[in-house]
Specification:
The protein has 2 helices and 8 strands. By secondary structure, the chain is an alpha+beta fold. It comes from Neogobius melanostomus.
């Protein structure tokens, strides 16, 4: 599943169907692509959702410190699901996206499939 980004950015998103923790997913993406998926606007968010398998959640490169992308840049664009982020049990510091484009904070140690990006 490779989706080429929209005209304003050369990002390519790739869905990885192996389940890993957020940190292991980031390491994999940095080794084989550029990084875990970073999403700067609505069109990129749609591009990520387009590579997700139906009814499947996947890690993206957002984490709480406060909310930043895995390259350390601020998160200007967000697309949280209803009632999110809620930091349930005080340990939800990483983020995944569903195929309806919505984001949810989850414990970083949970093993999930993930989306990498290649490009800028």
């Amino acid at each position: 599943h490779v989706f080429t980004g929209s005209a304003q950015g050369p990002k390519q998103y790739t869905y990885i169907s192996t389940s890993k923790s957020w940190e292991d997913a980031r390491s994999y993406c940095r080794q084989h692509h550029t990084d875990l998926a970073m999403i700067k606007d609505k069109s990129e968010n749609t591009a990520v959702a387009a590579v997700l398998v139906t009814n499947q959640w996947a890690w993206i490169g957002l984490y709480r410190q406060p909310w930043r992308w895995s390259d350390g840049s601020d998160s200007q664009f967000t697309n949280w699901g209803s009632g999110q982020p809620n930091n349930y049990a005080g340990n939800q510091h990483c983020v995944w996206e569903d195929n309806n484009h919505k984001w949810n904070d989850k414990p970083c140690s949970e093993k999930k499939k993930f989306v990498c990006h290649r490009g800028e």
